[in-house]
Write a structure and sequence with these properties.
heterodimer; A: alpha/beta; B: five-stranded mixed sheet
Chain lengths: 158, 353
């Protein structure tokens, strides 16, 4: 099982990301759970969501404490890696970074940042096949342009 | 066909398939053309009152709501007393303090009540619920919590043709709009007549359990018993839960079993009529049982605990959690099993967080 935490100030961005990731996992016939953090506070200015994917049945919609990846969508996010497991990766939106994996979406228009970041996650994590994520984006957004942002993130991921 | 759907989308998918030519979102209403009418109401009172009007005029009536139904509790009872086969999907969204207490709002309303754990169950129980409502002539509600409502999971859906065949056409023998066969509807009842009506109602709702069994066997689903047992057979300690939390309990049960602790999980799916016999049978060999639930009854015990108490005479502990929507953690569930293993039971309600 692979567990990813997605963090953003933009709730819509998170919900769309969950939709795309779960759609892609479904195409690969995998088991998955994609859900907003059940314990996040409504008054919070940052939203969390979880994506779990596996070859066996998943049941717990909990707040997992042993994460494989944390994806920070927003530039200048406060980086908190407490719940990352030992070999886990934090993936951040930055033009330069020494400690973490980074994807430069700092100059991408806000409404397209999550496509770039999902491109980076797909490349760095390999939890889903690139083609199934692209297919999911195309089916959900009906926009070729969004695929370009995804490809941009895929190429930029380091 | 396997799709990736949330609980919300599962209920929409069911509505879309069972009411042809419609997509159930507000934005589609202006384009809506068919023999099916979608009405948006402002308040829960309006919703239940409108559905009473709709169903009593002899048409299939399906409703959804995320609101609290407390203000409309009197109309809920009217809908069931009039034996109207209304089907409702309801979600607990946090607006008021004790918002998971829909169980308390509904429990004595005379509606048949079910709880779904996953988007798949939302879809399947909706089909069962609609058929059940129309066969026993009582309103049925399927609840989901907001976590299920917003979680994407794989859902096997039926194709439109199979689903339509399964739920069939609906014809009401008695209808206010059938002017050739006029009848008295919602007449004043004297005390004696009211007692008789309640007794009939009680018989029908009790009988509906048998119908529920028959329907779940007939329809092409996996099994949907009123109580879902998970490793209960041979379990020393069992947690009783409902809704999405059960997934966490099952995972902890698996972990504890590997450590040699005989743990089990019992999920409540059908709440009214309550499956006393099934609960009693499932828990008869248990050394201890904990009931975890998202509702309180201040000054007394929470609702499900009281029901389980009727069926289980051994050591029983009540836990309350997540009244404002938070989810219980694996560690907390593990702690409950550990406490049961140490024979740590008392008569007080314990609050997890």
């Amino acid at each position: 099982m692979q567990q990813v935490l997605l963090k953003s100030k933009d709730q819509n961005q998170l919900e769309m990301s969950l939709k795309i990731l779960s759609h892609a996992a479904n195409q690969e016939n995998k088991y998955f759970l994609a859900y907003p953090d059940p314990n996040s506070l409504p008054e919070s200015n940052s939203f969390d969501a979880y994506f779990k994917v596996s070859d066996y049945l998943l049941r717990s919609k909990d707040t997992p404490g042993n994460l494989d990846y944390i994806l920070f969508f927003d530039k200048n996010s406060r980086i908190d890696t407490r719940y990352l497991k030992k070999n886990g990766k934090a993936i951040i939106n930055s033009s330069r970074e020494k400690r973490y994996n980074f994807i430069d979406a700092t100059s991408t228009p806000q409404q397209n940042v999550y496509f770039v970041m999902l491109g980076g996650l797909t490349k760095l994590s390999r939890i889903l096949n690139k083609e199934s994520v692209k297919k999911a984006i195309l089916e959900i957004t009906k926009s070729e342009e969004k695929l370009n942002f995804f490809e941009e993130g895929y190429k930029k991921a380091k | 066909m396997r799709l990736s759907l949330t609980g919300k989308q599962s209920q929409e998918k069911f509505l879309q398939q069972s009411t042809p030519h419609t997509v159930v979102t507000d934005s589609h209403l202006p384009n809506f053309k068919s023999s099916v009418q979608i009405t948006c109401t402002d308040t829960p009172q309006d919703l239940i009152s409108t559905s009473i009007g709709s169903s009593s005029s002899g048409v299939r009536t399906i409703i959804t709501t995320n609101s609290s139904l407390t203000p409309s509790s009197n109309t809920l009872s009217v809908a069931s007393l009039l034996r109207l086969p209304i089907f409702m999907n309801s979600t607990q969204i946090g607006l008021e303090d004790n918002y998971y207490s829909k169980i308390s709002e509904f429990k004595d309303s005379g509606w048949i009540q079910m709880y779904a754990e996953t988007p798949q169950e939302v879809y399947d129980l909706s089909i069962i619920g609609l058929k059940l409502a129309e066969e026993v002539k009582l309103p049925v509600v399927v609840f989901q919590d907001w976590i299920t409502y917003r979680t994407y999971q794989p859902v096997e859906i039926l194709d439109d043709k199979t689903l339509k065949k399964m739920i069939g056409e609906y014809y009401s023998k008695q209808s206010l709009t059938n002017f050739r066969r006029p009848f008295t509807f919602n007449a004043f009842l004297t005390a004696n007549e009211n007692m008789k009506a309640k007794k009939d109602h009680e018989n029908t709702i009790s009988f509906s359990k048998k119908k529920y069994h028959n329907l779940t066997k007939k329809l092409p689903f996996k099994e949907y018993p009123p109580m879902a047992r998970y490793k209960v057979s041979g379990a020393d300690y069992v947690i009783v839960s409902k809704g999405s939390t059960t997934g966490i309990v099952k995972d902890v049960v698996d972990e504890l079993r590997q450590e040699g602790i005989k743990a089990g999980s019992l999920k409540l799916r059908l709440f009214r009529p309550f499956p006393f016999q099934e609960v009693s049978e499932a828990l008869k060999n248990s050394k201890g049982v904990a009931v975890i639930e998202r509702n309180t009854s201040l000054g007394s015990y929470p609702t499900i605990y009281k029901e389980i108490k009727q069926s289980f005479m051994g050591s029983l502990q009540s836990y309350v959690y997540g009244l404002k929507g938070g989810e219980v953690s694996k560690e907390e569930i593990r702690e409950i099993f550990v406490k049961m293993n140490k024979k740590d039971f008392d008569e007080n309600v314990r609050y997890l967080r």
